[in-house]
Design goal:
The structure holds 2 protein chains of 2 kinds. Chain A is of the alpha/beta class. Chain A has helices at about 25-35, 50, 70-85, 100-105, 105-115, 160-165, 180-195, 205-210, 215-225, 255, 265-285, and strands spanning about 40-45, 65, 90-100, 120-125, 170-175, 200-205, 230-235, 240-245. Chain B contains 13 helices and 16 strands. Chain B has helices at about 10-20, 35-45, 60-70, 80-95, 120-125, 140-155, 185-190, 215-245, 270-285, 300-310, 330-340, 360-375, 395-400; strands at about 1-5, 25, 50-55, 75, 100-105, 130-135, 160-165, 175-180, 205-210, 255, 265-270, 290-295, 295-300, 315-320, 345-350, 380-385. β2 (about 65) of chain A pairs parallel with β9 of chain B, so a sheet runs across the interface.
């Protein structure tokens, strides 16, 4: 047994070795702070696995298991069923996975959970690539972004996770961002209170993978929201509701120029990205 | 104690019901589907007090079962063939996290080519996965081995998941008379399930399965190895108790008329029944032949096999899987290893693949060959015993054209 001399605030230990400026750390601390200790977490391999711990040590004060990359939702479904059959309806079962483990390899298991209405909270922290394995492109990597497997920039748009959730008509799905923690925490609480599967898709700035100054994580997240690159909204009981609408979309270059992953883009390519973002935003607004 | 007419799938379900499984996550696959169907029906009819998760794949079936069992209930699933192959990754999580799930595996060949029918390659491909593996000869075995498997798997000194293997169609779809024990007896034999190692409980938090360095990995694998060693020691004790409770004997291996046998054939699964019948027929003709049936393939009862075959001049092993790239089949490899340093000649036979029946004639042919060897007429080391003539001509386009 290790003796702990000073309790950490919240349910995540002090001194976790996330990269400086990592958005994920902020997210897990806030998510667990809202959900509380009556929570069981499932974490796949990836950046969030550093909270699983290493060897005899863990960074979490709650019960959890590190699963495989593609079955976070599946473990969560099993855990929930196990608790329910024993009469425990109160414990929150949290699946906490990155974009690769969610929109790529884990989409099938997540689809199963959403279709069956398993009552779990699924958080996808989206740093828009496989960061833990060395910044390889995922289907969440945005148009134009350079990764180690899209070296000249990704030539397709990102997959729309929340639309997939909407297609399953789950009771609650929402996007969030570290740009607005109050909004994020409110949505976590809603997810917790949802009777059925709840999905949170959280934009997660990654200084290491995106190539920006570690002090600028929040600034970048805010630019993502203000340029329309990341839309904050909820899908609740079949209705979409925007959480924050920028008065006017700022030019996408405000967002792109802060990041190394877009620096190879030529003027015409920036225009292409701008067009994609703006048309997606307007389409979204028209569908509200 | 009641008698029921059950097929192998129904006997597996009977075992799960008697074990009072709490969560079921099942996905259909031929020839296992009846298990997935029957369990869902029983949950709907309140014949089992369980949650049924209608999963979207075998990978999820096993993942969900692991998650569920970690909360402190017996979890149930079942599969076959490529379904088991799809589970492969998570089988290692169940065994490595010491989650003692008991799973019927309805043996069916793996692709390619596609086959719906029995052989053992699906389970053999998982023989290093850290799961106990027991093979059934008949439908009664399926039920008995299921009940035994729960006790063995959940033993504190073992804590390993277990596969109860039953031959696809030959057992899964074969109706036989089965003696079914009373619930009360099973309850006292198995006890209520509690998680004895890893668990998921918010009131007693533990983080399971994090990254482990080379500093500890070897030792954690070694702990699993010791669990298998313990299983070899503990299974006979459980089987003795099984006999006292239910009145039927189970074994790690079963010797059938081996004592004075000149040659012995090692068998696995449903072929053993036919083989015993052939032994009786040949014995009536004065031929000294016998059978050694392997019930527990994992752990492999090395010493029992060595003892049973001690002093035999010639032994044959009939594998129902190809063992591609090795000199013989997997059961042959184990048997050969058990007999290392002895003078026994161990011959490998491959047969019964992709649903091909193993009739009396096949077994008789093997015994005839083994007796040849016994009488100092050397035979091949490895023989595909039921191979047709000109096997290389099968599906040859030019031959097909010629025959048009």
């Amino acid at each position: 047994m290790y003796k702990i001399y000073k309790d950490s605030k919240g349910l995540v230990a002090h001194g976790v070795s996330a990269c400086a400026g990592c958005g994920l750390e902020l997210i897990i601390r806030n998510v667990l702070d809202v959900l509380g200790e009556d929570t069981i977490i499932v974490i796949p391999p990836g950046c969030s696995a550093l909270f699983s711990g290493f060897g005899k040590e863990t960074a979490l004060k709650i019960a959890g298991i590190q699963g495989n990359l593609e079955n976070t939702a599946a473990y969560a479904a099993g855990i929930k069923a196990g608790l329910q059959i024993q009469g425990n309806e109160h414990t929150t079962v949290l699946a906490f996975a990155g974009d690769g483990a969610t929109v790529d390899i884990g989409i099938q298991a997540l689809s199963g959970v959403m279709e069956r209405r398993d009552k779990i909270v699924y958080v996808c922290y989206d740093n828009e690539a496989y960061m833990n394995t060395g910044i390889q492109g995922s289907s969440s990597t945005p148009l134009g972004a350079n990764t180690t497997t899209t070296p000249t920039g990704k030539n397709t748009s990102r997959k729309d996770l929340i639309k997939i959730a909407e297609a399953h008509d789950i009771p609650y799905a929402a996007t969030a961002s570290v740009a607005n923690l109050v909004d994020l925490r409110k949505k976590v609480q809603k997810a917790k209170d949802t009777d059925g599967p709840a999905l949170l898709h959280i934009h997660t700035p990654c200084p290491t993978g995106w190539g920006f100054d570690t002090a600028k994580s929040i600034e970048i997240s805010k630019e993502a929201v203000n340029t329309g690159a990341w839309i904050l909204y909820e899908y609740e009981a079949g209705v979409r509701k925007i959480s924050y609408k920028p008065k006017e979309l700022r030019p996408i270059s405000n967002y792109l120029k802060l990041q190394g992953r877009f620096k190879h883009l030529k003027e015409n390519e920036i225009v292409e990205v701008q067009d994609e973002i703006v048309s997606r935003f307007h389409k979204f607004m028209s569908e509200l | 104690m009641t008698f029921k007419m059950l097929d192998g799938n129904a006997a597996a379900v009977e075992g799960m019901q008697l074990a009072r499984v709490g969560v079921i996550s099942a996905y259909p696959i031929t020839p296992q589907s009846a298990i997935a169907e029957k369990l869902s029906e029983m949950v709907d009819n309140d014949q089992i007090d369980a949650k049924y998760i209608r999963v979207e794949s075998e990978h999820t079936a096993m993942s969900a079962a692991i998650g569920a069992q970690l909360t402190g209930v017996r979890a149930a699933t079942a599969t076959s063939s490529v379904g088991l192959a799809l589970m492969h990754e998570v089988l290692g999580v169940a065994s490595g996290c010491r989650v003692p799930i008991v799973m019927p595996v309805v043996n069916r060949a793996l692709v390619s080519p596609w086959s719906l029918w029995c052989d053992h390659q699906d389970a053999m491909a998982e023989r290093d996965s850290g799961w106990l593996q027991f093979y059934s000869e008949n439908v009664q075995d399926v039920l008995d081995l299921m009940l035994m498997a729960y006790r063995v798997a959940e033993d504190e000194e073992i804590l390993l998941p277990a596969m109860v293997c039953l031959d696809g169609f030959f057992l899964s779809h074969s109706m036989q008379k089965v003696e079914c024990p009373d619930q009360a007896k099973v309850d006292s034999f198995l006890g209520k399930y509690t998680a004895k190692n890893t668990h998921l409980n918010p009131k007693d938090p533990m983080f399971i399965n994090d990254l482990t360095s080379s500093d500890e990995f070897t030792e954690m694998r070694y702990q699993q190895k010791v669990a298998f060693d313990n299983a070899l020691r503990i299974i006979p004790r459980v089987q003795a108790e099984f006999y006292e409770t239910f009145g039927r004997r189970l074994n790690l291996v079963e010797e059938y008329r081996t004592e004075d046998a000149e040659v012995v054939l090692v068998t696995l699964g449903s072929m053993s029944g036919t083989a015993k019948h052939v032994v009786n027929t040949l014995r009536a003709k004065g031929l000294k032949v016998g059978i050694l049936k392997i019930v527990s393939f994992r752990p492999f009862p090395d010493e029992l096999v060595r003892t049973a075959l001690r002093g035999k001049k010639v032994v044959g092993v009939l594998d129902r899987s190809a063992g591609l790239g090795a000199e013989g089949g997997p059961v042959w490899l184990e048997t050969t290893s058990a007999l290392k340093g002895t003078a026994t000649e161990v011959k490998s036979y491959i047969g019964g693949l992709g649903g091909r029946d193993i009739p009396e004639a096949t077994i008789e042919k093997i015994f005839a060959e083994l007796l040849e060897q016994y009488n100092n007429h050397p035979i091949e080391n490895t023989t595909w015993i039921d191979l047709k003539e000109n096997p290389l001509d099968i599906r040859q386009v030019d031959k097909l054209v010629q025959n048009l």
